[in-house]
Write a structure and sequence with these properties.
By secondary structure, this protein is α/β, with parallel strands linked by helices. It contains 10 helices and 12 strands. Helix 5 (105-115) links the parallel strand 3 and strand 4. Helix 1 crosses helix 3 (31-45) and helix 1 packs across helix 4. Residues 3-60 form the HTH lysR-type domain.
Length: 291
């Protein structure tokens, strides 16, 4: 059995207005049509929806339960209608991303742009400080950044990803803590949460280290790592060719904590376009992690 949403709307409207004559007027139907709908609803429910209470009608237990569900179903129906009617979105939205997401998110953004040809998407790949600054000054509508230590604005944790030691897939560097040599580290220029957390873990374990290569791009880090200039620290998300995850215990390296990947906006309730793209980006990242 499937309840008729049109009938449910008449039922809810009549209860809320306190009169089915008023409901008929509001819904542009005759009172006899509304009456027929209520009889149909009672037949589907298999029990009376109303009982006499003095000179007025009151809801039975069945009526109360059905009223609650009717409101919820109608709300979901109206939400779906709004979503479909607003698929022809117009405007533009500005998105900031980490380089680690560059291997798969452009494809997602391309699908979004093709589905909404009247929407202009501007995407910027940059590092945390730049992205957060642009969220604050309004030059970005949303951004995905590493970490969640920030006051102000709206933020939503997308996932927690394990940080990993990463080396050359060709085995060009075979460092081990027993060698007594400082660990050569490849990292972004400061400030970098990966660099900070990794060096803190090394210091706690009494392992000396040296910064052997810095870069402002993920490609630079990956090229240096592949060449064996040192070990770098990232997550498995967006791993570059020529690099591989290392067995930390085997090399005497300290285990590393997880790091949050967080979506940031200035407002918790943005415009529909920003909200839609936020949802798509979040879902795409979670799907990639699950895969």
């Amino acid at each position: 059995m499937n309840f008729d949403l049109d009938v449910m709307r008449s039922f809810v409207t009549g209860v809320e207005l306190g009169s089915y004559a008023k409901a008929a007027q509001k819904l542009s139907r005759s009172t006899s049509a509304i009456s027929a709908q209520l009889k149909k609803l009672e037949a589907q429910a298999g029990s009376p929806l109303f009982t006499k209470s003095g000179r007025r009608l009151a809801l039975t237990d069945t009526g109360e339960v059905l009223l609650n569900y009717s409101r919820r179903l109608l709300s979901l129906n109206d939400e779906a209608v709004t979503a479909v009617s607003e698929l022809r979105l117009k405007g533009w939205v500005r998105l900031g991303l980490q380089e680690d997401l560059g291997s798969f998110l452009p494809t997602v953004l391309g699908r979004f742009a093709r589905a909404h040809p009247d929407v202009r998407v501007e995407a910027r790949i940059a590092r945390n400080a730049d992205l957060l600054s642009r969220i604050d000054n309004g030059s970005l509508d949303l951004a995905v950044v590493w970490g969640d230590r920030r006051n102000g604005g709206y933020q939503e944790r997308i996932a927690d990803l394990p940080m990993q030691w990463i080396g050359s897939a060709h085995g060009y560097l075979d460092w081990n803590s027993n060698s007594g040599e400082p660990l050569p580290i490849i990292a972004f220029d400061a400030p970098c949460p990966f660099h900070s957390m990794a060096t803190e873990a090394l210091t706690r374990k009494g392992i000396s280290w040296m910064l052997s290569f810095t870069s402002s791009s993920l490609n630079g880090l990956s090229a240096a790592t592949e060449a064996g200039l040192g070990y770098t620290i990232r997550t498995p998300l967006g791993m570059q060719p020529g690099t591989t995850l290392l067995d930390a215990e085997e090399r005497g390296l300290p285990p590393l904590p997880s790091i949050p990947l967080t979506l940031h906006r200035r407002e918790a309730s943005p415009n529909l376009l920003t909200e839609r793209l936020s949802s798509i980006v979040t879902q795409a990242i979670r799907s990639e992690i699950a895969y």
